[in-house]
């Protein structure tokens, strides 16, 4: 009886399998300690095949960074429904961010810890996608500010006191940077604290960003929608 031929796996599928293994190894062991032997073994392929598909350890790490960055950005964008009020858009974006980073802790480690500390080339890859997220958040904040300004104008009595001027672009940009930076730090903390869920992390930052520290100290909080 002749040997049974197994169906050859498509290159794209095999490559994703290698990237899955690489993200796990890089995320858990770090870039320096990760070895191509361990990645190949976890992926269930030979080391020469990893080199054939992805050229080198540096190229493999870069491919991991790009894939995880694109997945994170896509998750945040998909989570935001632009037809909803500004606070719901911000909440949905934060929840999508923390849900993704909680579900993919190795990918988050690759992006936020490993890529930033192992050379300018890797750090530059993260900088590009982070700039995209900051730009997206900047747009959300700018739209929220315009909505708030419009509501203030509607409430103002005819011929009465003037409405506050729009939030300056510099302030909008600064708020977006602060919010993204806070989300990154909070994701690290939440992933290292098993008792903290993605929803709890999102609610913490939502209250800090939307309600404000002063209001929180007075016992007033923003209530997340029901799950």
Question: How does this structure look, described?
Answer:
The structure is a single chain. With 227 residues, the protein is mainly alpha-helical. The chain has a domain at 65-217: Tetracycline Repressor, domain 2. 73% of the residues lie in helices and 0% in strands. The chain has 10 helices and no strands.
Mean pLDDT across all amino acids: 86
Number of strands: 0
- Poorly predicted regions are 1-6
Instruction: Summarize the amount of helix as a percent range.
Output: over 70%
Proportion of residues in β-strands: under 5%
Distance between the termini: 58 Å
Please, how many helices? 10
- CATH class categorisation of the domain at 65-217: Mainly Alpha
CATH-defined fold name of the domain at 65-217 = Tetracycline Repressor, domain 2
The helix/strand class is mainly alpha
Q: What is the CATH H-level superfamily of the domain at 65-217? A: Tetracycline Repressor, domain 2
Categorize the overall geometry.
elongated
Instruction: Give the topology string: H per helix, E per strand.
Output: HHHHHHHHHH
| CATH second-level architecture of the domain at 65-217 | Orthogonal Bundle
Major beta sheet, specifics? Answer: none
Radius of gyration, in angstroms, nearest whole number: 22 Å
């Amino acid at each position: 009886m002749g040997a049974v031929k197994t169906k050859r796996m498509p290159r794209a599928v095999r490559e994703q399998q290698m990237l899955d293994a690489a993200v796990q190894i890089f995320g858990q062991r770090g870039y320096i300690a990760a070895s191509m032997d361990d990645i190949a073994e976890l992926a269930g392929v030979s080391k020469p095949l990893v080199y054939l598909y992805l050229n080198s350890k540096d190229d493999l790490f870069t491919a991991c960074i790009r894939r995880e960055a694109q997945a994170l950005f896509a998750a945040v964008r998909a989570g935001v429904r632009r037809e909803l009020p500004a606070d719901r858009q911000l909440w949905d974006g934060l929840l999508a961010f923390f849900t993704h980073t909680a579900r993919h802790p190795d990918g988050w480690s690759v992006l936020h810890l490993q890529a930033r500390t192992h050379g300018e080339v890797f750090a530059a890859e993260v900088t590009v996608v982070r700039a995209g997220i900051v730009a997206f958040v900047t747009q959300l904040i700018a739209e929220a500010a315009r909505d708030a300004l419009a509501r203030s104008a509607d409430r103002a009595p005819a011929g009465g006191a003037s409405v506050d001027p729009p939030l300056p672009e510099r302030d909008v940009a600064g708020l977006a940077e602060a919010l993204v930076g806070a989300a990154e730090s909070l994701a690290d903390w939440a992933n290292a604290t098993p008792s903290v869920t993605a929803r709890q992390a999102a609610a913490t930052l939502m209250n800090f960003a939307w309600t404000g520290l002063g209001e929180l100290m007075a016992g007033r909080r923003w209530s997340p929608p029901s799950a």
